[in-house]
Every structure is written in C-alpha cells, then in structure tokens.
Write a structure and sequence with these properties.
There is one protein chain. A hairpin with a 2-residue loop joins strand 6 and strand 7 (105-108). Among the domains are: 1-133 and 629-639 and 656-683, 3-Layer(aba) Sandwich (Rossmann fold), CATH 3.40.50.300; 295-424, Helix hairpin bin (Helix Hairpins, Orthogonal Bundle). With 683 residues, it is α/β, with parallel strands linked by helices. The chain has helices spanning 36-48, 111-121, 134-139, 144-152, 155-166, 169-196, 199-290, 296-344, 359-459, 461-562, 593-614, 635-648, and strands at residues 2-11, 14-20, 24-29, 66-75, 78-88, 93-102, 105-108, 141-143, 567-571, 577-581, 584-586, 623-627, 652-657, 668-675, 678-681.
C-alpha cells in the first residue's frame, strides 16, 4: 500500500486541508499541538471508521455540524479513493456517508461494508472485521505512548494481547474447543452407553411378548363367545321387563284418572259449599228488603213542594232584580248631580240665556242638588236592606228544595231495591237446581272412582313382577358389562403388547444405530484427546518459542542501534523486556525518558517485523507510521535514528516529530502550523 493524498474537512483543528504524500520517507514537522497527529487519526478513520469506544466528537471540529475525510492510495496497482463523513445529530455525532472508488468505479456502502472492503483490499484476515484495528496499529501506526503502556501492562494481559496480535490465540481457542468437544463427546458417550446397555434384554423381551400375545389372541375368542351369550340373555330379560312395564303404565293411567276424579269431586263439593253461602246471603238480603216501607205519594208530595219552592224563589229573584235596578238608577242620579255641581263651580255665564250666574244662584242650585242626593242615598240604603232580606229568604228556600230532592233520591233507591227482591228469589231457585245437579255429579264420580280402584288393584300385582324383572335385568346388564370389560381389556392388552413389540423392534433398530455412533464417538474422542490436542499444544509451544526467539533477536538489534552497548536486553517468556547493566537488572520505570522511548521504539519495530513476517500477504508491509519516535532522545540517540530509518527499508515511511534534526534524515518534509486554532500545511 502507498498513501498518495488525504483531504481533511472540519476534522479537529483543520477546516479544509489537502495533504499529498510521496514515496520514501516523509516527516510531518511542526510544534507540539500543531495538528500533526490529527492527520494520522484522519488516515485511520478514513480506512476503518470510528473505533469501539471512540466518539465522533474526538474528530469533528468544534462548532461544526458536518465533516469528513477522503484519502487516495494505491494497492496492487489499484487506484483507491475512500471517503467518510461525520454528521452531528441531536445527541451524538455519527458516521454518515461512506463510499469507495476503485479504478474509477464508485460504490456507496454502509460503515461495516466499507470496513470489510478495506480489510479485503489490504488482505487482512477476516477475523479483524468486528474488532479494533489491532493489526493496523501494530504493523502501521502505534502511538508511542500506547506502546509504553503495553510494556508496562501486567504479563498476562500483555501476553494475551500479543497472542492475539500474532494470531497465536487461535491455538488456544483450538485447545479450548477440543476440550469442549471432548467434554461433549464424553457426555454423549455416557448417554449412548446408557441407551445401548439394554439391547440384549430388549431382544429377550420381544420373544416373551410375542408368546404372550399369541396366548391372548386365543383367549379373546372364548371371551367373545361368552359376551355373545350374555347379550342374548340380557335382551330376553329386557323384552319381558318391557311387557310388564306396559301393564304398569296402564295401572298408572288408572291411578291418574282416580286423582283427576278426586279433584273433580272436590271441585263439585266446593261449588255446593259456595252455593250454600250465596243462598244464605240472598235470603238475608230478601229479609232486610221485606222490612222496608215505600210510599209513592210521598214522592209526589215532595215534587209538588219543590215546584212551589222554586216558583217562590223565582218571585223573590224577580223582586231582587227590580230593587237592584232602582238602586242603580239612584246611583246614576247622584253621579249626575255631582257632575252638575262640578260644572257650576266653573260657569260664570248661563249657556242658554247668556246671563250672568251669580253666587247666590249657584248656592241655591248646589243645595237643592245636595238635598236630592241625600234623599237618594237614604232611599238606596232602604232598598239594600230589602234586597238582603230577599237573599236570605232565597237561601232558606234553596236549603228546603235540596232536602226535598235528597229525600226523593233516597225513595227512588229504595224503590229500586224493592224491585230486586223478585230477581233474588229467581236466583235462589237457580242455585237450588244447580245444587241438585252437583250432588248427582258427585255421586257419579264416586261410583267411577270405585270402578277405577278395582282396576288399579287388579294391576298392582305387576309392581312386584317389575321389581323382580328389573333386578334380573340389572344382573344381566352387569354380567354383560363385565364380559364387555373383559373383551375390551383383552383387546387393549393385545394392542398394548403389539405396540410394545413394535416399539421394542424400533428401539433395537435405533439402539443398533446408536451403537454405531457410540463406536465412532469413542474413536473420535481418543483421536482428539490423544493425538490432535498434543499436536496443537506442540505447535503452539514451537510457534511461541520461535516468535520469542525472533522477537527477542529483533528487539535486541533495534535497541542496540539506539542505546549504548553498556545495556544487555532480552525478552522473557511473557514478552517482558529484560534490561541489564553490569549484570544488574534494571526496572523499565527507572530508565531515563530517552531510554524508555528507545525500549518502546525497539519493541514497536520488532513487533512490526515479526507480524509482517508471519502475515506476509498483508498489503501494509511497506507502509509504516512513527508518531513521535524520538520523544526524550538525546542528540546522540537522534543521530542514531538515521541508521534506524535506513535499516527499516520500507517503501513509504511517515514520521511525526517536532525535532528539526529529523528533517535531515528523510526525503520529504511537510510542515504543519497552527494559528488562531486553525491548522494548515505551509506552502
């Protein structure tokens, strides 16, 4: 792989920056914090997207809603352009648009599809598709501080990490899987041994069951004959019982007729009793009416009296009207006098003779009018008294008329009651005739009940016969049911035995198949545990030994190039750097900053070469990025970096450093500056 160009759009401190890369060694130069590492993060993001635990906010420029990276590189003569973008949402920043162009053919892919496509182009094993880009980190780009952390990790964690990087953990997984498989095989073996241990007993059971089955078929014939005879006996008893039942039904009908006749007799007697009560009531009423006296002349006398009273009331009423008329006339005269008096008070000249009207004349006229009015009032009062006396007389006449009319009404009611005596006497004769008829009916019904009782007595003997025949039928039914149960049980036993025989045959067949499987499982378990697992363990051990030897050799070579020969350095079995000086082991944390950087860089370069030698087909073998590899180096160590870079012998090397001295060791220099929070490449 050879990187040609990267374009950063709103990535960290970059707004819109294009950076071109040449073959050979290139230095990204600039002050600390100028934005050099941002370019390396942009390369990794463009290739593999956001990593597990990495947030989009770590890449997207503050205050921007969108951003992205586009890189161009060549791999196997293929021109590849990859583009990824970031988009700020309501809560998070996520990957948005992804595309890849290979030799001019563009495809828009999902995040996962693009990562798989890149891994395929770089010939990375497929197992890295769902993991962090650990292979890329330890063959192309590992920040120096991360490498120091690996060295300082506890031995178990570091060994497991390196086993994963080298791909050796697959042997461990194989052994673990072998253990799981053999455990499952042993379980399966125990299960199948348990399933096959009864095969001989099953074969003996089949013979026994088949003999019993034959005997049961023979017994079934005799039991079915017995059932047939029981059924015939039950049918005969049942027919006899049904005949008796018909006789009992006739007896029950007679009994029902007796009950109906009893009810009819009771109803007739109740009617006789009611007629007697009614007769007593009517006779009492006739006696009471006979004692009453009625005078038709009294009605005529009262009617004449009422007519006279009404005529007298009419005369009084006429007089009252005449008096009211006279009172009304006097009132009109008084009102007329008052009007004249009112007019005189305002008249000065007589309207008739046109002469002056004097006060004396007015006074005389007024006095005369007042005198007339006074006489009229007195006369009206006397008339009102007369009218009041007439009203009282008419009221008294009304009371006498009302009393006479009430007495006439009472006499008319009495007359009507006296007329009902004949009707009541006729009713008594009708009741007497009805009673005679009822008595005759009662006598006939009693005779009929006697006849019915005689018939019931004749049929009563069938009750005992019915009970006896019912018991006989119950016994026959019970015998038939027992015979049916015996036949059913025998048939069920035959069915069960037949099923058991078939099941045993099928089970033996399956057991024989299981026996074959058991033999295969035993053979497979022995091969896995006694042959395959030891071979894998031996391969793992040899690979680890070879790796450790090669890694230790490379680590010692790179370290000796960076540090004086007064140090002896090697790698332990858990890949921990062992540093000795004058036969004394020195802890890594007690080394100077430059010496720790040298250990980390040597570890990093040895790791790179070991992985590339193991995975010789990956396409990033000639592409290496070193991020601040000289942090804390002395001038003497910086001078030795030229020899280290020459020894690397890679097609494209990118170094990130703020050491100006490194510029003399590389073929190309890209200078990065940062002003007002914005990073850019100097022209």
């Amino acid at each position: 792989m050879r990187l040609k160009k990267i374009v950063l759009n709103n990535i960290r401190s970059y707004e819109n920056q294009e950076v071109e890369f040449s073959e050979g060694s290139t230095l990204l130069s600039g002050d600390i914090g100028s934005g050099k590492t941002s370019i390396l993060l942009g390369i990794e993001f463009a290739l593999f997207g956001l990593q597990p635990g990495q947030r989009g906010s770590a890449l997207l420029k503050n205050g921007k809603d969108t951003g992205g990276v586009k890189i161009e590189f060549v791999v196997d003569d293929k021109e590849v352009i990859v583009e990824r973008t970031l988009k700020k949402g309501s809560k998070t920043i996520s990957q948005d648009y992804c595309s890849i162009r290979i030799n001019g053919e563009k495809r828009e892919l999902s995040v996962t599809e693009l990562k798989n496509s890149i891994l395929d182009l770089l010939s990375y094993p497929g197992e890295f598709s769902k993991k962090q880009n650990i292979l890329y980190k330890f063959t192309v780009y590992t920040p120096q501080e991360e490498m120091k952390q690996i060295i300082l990790q506890d031995p178990v964690t570091r060994t497991n990490t390196l086993r994963h990087i080298f791909g050796i953990d697959k042997y461990k997984r194989i052994l673990e899987n072998i253990s799981i498989v053999t455990s499952k095989l042993r379980e399966e073996r125990r299960l199948k041994e348990g399933l096959t241990e009864t095969i001989e007993q099953d074969r003996m059971n089949i013979l026994s069951k088949e003999n019993e089955l034959e005997a049961k078929h023979y017994n079934l014939v005799s039991v079915e004959k017995e059932l047939f005879s029981k059924e015939e006996k039950r049918k005969k008893v049942q027919e006899e019982k049904e005949e008796i039942s018909k006789k009992i039904e006739e007896k029950n009908k007679f009994q029902q007729e007796i009950e109906k006749t009893k009810i009819m007799v009771l109803n007739k007697k109740e009617s006789l009793s009611n007629n007697l009560e009614i007769t007593k009531q009517i006779e009492g009423q006739i006696k009471e009416l006979s004692e009453l006296r009625f005078d038709e002349l009294e009605i005529e006398r009262l009617a004449s009296e009422i007519a006279l009273r009404k005529k007298e009331k009419e005369e009084f009423n006429q007089k009252s009207i005449e008096i009211s008329t006279r009172i009304y006339s006097l009132d009109l005269k008084n009102k007329e006098n008052e009007k004249i008096k009112e007019k005189l008070t305002h008249i000065e000249v007589c309207p008739t003779c046109m002469q002056d009207v004097g006060p004396t004349y007015k006074a005389n006229v007024v006095n005369k009018l007042s005198s007339n009015t006074s006489e009229n009032i007195k006369h009206a009062e006397s008339l009102n008294l007369a009218k009041q006396k007439l009203f009282e007389s008419m009221t008294e006449i009304d009371s006498k008329i009302s009393m006479a009319e009430k007495r006439i009404q009472e006499l008319n009611i009495l007359k009507i009651k006296l007329q009902g005596i004949e009707e009541k006497q006729g009713r008594l004769k009708e009741i007497e005739i009805s009673n005679k008829l009822l008595e005759n009916d009662v006598e006939l019904l009693n005779n009929q009940m006697g006849t019915l009782r005689d018939s019931v007595f004749e049929f009563a003997k069938f009750d005992n016969l019915f009970e006896s025949k019912q018991k006989e039928l119950n016994n026959a039914l019970n015998d038939e049911r027992l015979a049916e149960i015996k036949v059913a049980e025998l048939k069920k036993e035959i069915e069960v035995f037949s099923t058991q025989v078939e099941e045993l045959k099928e089970r033996i067949k399956k057991t024989e198949e299981i026996k074959k499987q058991l033999d295969y499982i035993i053979e497979l378990e022995n091969w896995l545990s006694k042959k395959f697992a030891p071979v894998i363990s031996l391969i793992e051990k040899n690979v680890m030994v070879n790796l450790k030897v090669e890694f230790s050799k490379l680590f010692e070579e790179w370290f000796s190039m960076l540090v004086s020969e007064s140090f002896n350095i090697s790698i332990s079995d858990d890949f921990t750097p062992i540093i000795e000086q004058q036969d004394y082991e020195i802890d890594y944390t007690y080394l100077s900053g430059g010496e720790r950087t040298a250990v980390a860089l040597a570890y990093r370069l040895a790791l790179n070469q070991v992985i590339n030698s193991m995975l010789s087909k990956i396409k990033t073998r000639d592409f290496v990025i070193l991020d601040e590899p000289t942090d804390g180096f002395s001038d003497q160590q910086l001078d030795k970096m030229r020899e280290v870079l020459d020894q690397l012998n890679v097609a494209q090397l990118i170094i990130v450093s703020h050491e100006q001295k490194i510029e003399g060791f590389v073929e190309n220099v890209i200078r990065i500056k940062k002003e007002n929070g914005r990073s850019f490449v100097e022209a």
